[in-house]
Amino acid sequence: DAGVIQSPRHEVTEMGQEVTLRCKPISGHNSLFWYRQTMMRGLELLIYFNNNVPIDDSGMPEDRFSAKMPNASFSTLKIQPSEPRDSAVYFCASSLGTSGGAGDTQYFGPGTRLTVL
Amino acid sequence: KQEVTQIPAALSVPEGENLVLNCSFTDSAIYNLQWFRQDPGKGLTSLLLIQSSQREQTSGRLNASLDKSSGRSTLYIAASQPGDSATYLCAVSGSNYKLTFGKGTLLTVNP
Q1: Nearest CA to B88 among B41, B44, B24, B33?
Q2: B49: which chain A residues are within 8 Å (Cβ-Cβ)?
Q3: Residue B87: phi, psi to the nearest 5?
Q4: Where are the extended beta strands (E) located within A5-111?
Q5: Contacts of B104 in chain A (CB under 8 A)
Q6: Alpha carbon separation from B107 to A94, B12, B42, B43, B67 (Å, rounded)
Q7: Lower Cβ count inside 10 Å, N or C end of chain A?
Q8: How far is the alpha carbon of A109 from chain B, nearest alpha carbon, in Å?
């Protein structure tokens, strides 16, 4: 298996622009997670999907952030409008999704490094 | 709110040395604990997962222990190699699936 695939790997944009990050989870995995990593705050969970349904989006920082999972093999994280403080590495992870995902190993993608100027 | 602390923040050792990385968490009601490795510019790779009912897990030169009641875990690396150089992250999961991460220990193994 190719593992979790994320695109783009790097994104540089200007403040106010819309940014869309993409993720393809491992085939057969039912849980998908979006994380953000910064030096100051470390890794933070933004949103969690199970069977394509958003279960918990309490980590989404504000209304500028939205995430969708239209099918089992694709998810997007959108920021509109983007701000410099959104600069971070965004990771997507997937797991089998048994036990509601709590007991499963999460497999991480390589991340998207976002820079907002 | 669960908080995870990792000590030390950075560690530099000569090749061949055995070493221990520490992780502590504030809420002992965890479902499991995982240790991850992160290489620069890369994603996270899961190393070991310890269920709350377990005391330790081993994989090759790695051994992770869990003392849930005291809120502590250690990752022991035997006979360290330069290829072990990376950031090691500890994360705990509650029954609500959420992983709470520590900020990691940056390990450098010098040849």
Answers
A1: B44
A2: 105
A3: -100, 130
A4: 5-7, 10-13, 19-24, 31-38, 42-50, 53-56, 65-71, 74-79, 88-95, 107-108
A5: 42
A6: 26, 6, 15, 16, 23
A7: N
A8: 6
Confidence of residue A22 (pLDDT cuts 50, 70, 90): very high
How high is the pLDDT of residue B6? 96
Nearest CB among A100, A103, A109 relative to B43 is that of: A109
Residue A102 pLDDT exceeds 70: no
Provide the chain A residues 28-67 that lie in CB contact (below 8 A) with chain B. 31, 33, 42-45, 48, 55-56
Question: How close, in Å, is residue A101 to chain B by CA atoms?
Answer: 5
What one-letter code names the amino acid at B90? C
Give per-residue pLDDT as tens, B7-36.
999 999 999 999 999 999 999 999 899 999
Of A31, A53, A52, give the one whose Cα is nearest residue A98.
Answer: A31
Tell whether A25 lies on the interface with B, counting CB pairs under 8 A: no
